[in-house]
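Hallway conversation turned thread

IA: we were arguing at lunch whether anyone had actually written out Glycosyltransferase end to end. Turns out nobody had. So, for the record, here is the sequence (227 residues) and right after it the structure tokens. Reply here if something looks off.
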Amino acid sequence: MNYNEVYHDRDIFVEDYKEMNRSFKIYVYPHRRNDPFANVLLPMGSEPGVIMLVKVTLRRKKLAFFAGKINSPVREKLLQVWRNDTEIFAHSGRLKTPYADELLGSKFCLHVKGYEVNTARIADSLYYGCVPVIIADYHDLPFADILNLKSFSIDVATLDIPLLKKILKRFSFEEYLMLQRNALKVRKHFQWHLSPVDYDAFYMVMYELWLRRSSVRLPSNAFVHPN
């Protein structure tokens, strides 16, 4: 596998995406501002530039960062091992510093399985140019059939939590820069906009649905009015 390539097959993806845009009809219904998950992703605001993020990487002082609730044995193990470490910042409870500053100040951002695998952490870390480290066995990550996850993220088995620092330090500076550059290439696919933008998170989810259009089957009475 070519770890420099962020797509499994970019040409097929681009052609299929064009066909999806041409043939797939999408109707968007507005949500209320207080709906669950309405504000789960970080606001776009002014997006950090690629050059700025690479320069910040050269000054990132923390090896790795995690902050979150201790709601699973995996997170509990992470905190037990690394809570007081000087290079891996593993934190539970309220942060004393802004969350974005921690993402900007860390080389690797830990995505640790909680009561569910899927959170906004991967999108957050990519947004700020922090290489995601996924610590969760038997997981299904977003867009895995489109994106080459190994080109911009690291997978660590939960049993290897005590070896986390050793694993991360195996990556040379050049290898880390390759991972980070690839992370910046794919971050557009994980970003959410109030009005969808081509290839953003909304369109990528629609593309995933479009790919599975022939495998989704609904009962014949699904659209029959009860009256």
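OS: looked through it. The helical segments are 10-23, 50-57, 73-82, 99-104, 121-127, 164-169, 173-186, 201-211.
IA: good, adding that to the notes. The longest strand covers residues 106-112.
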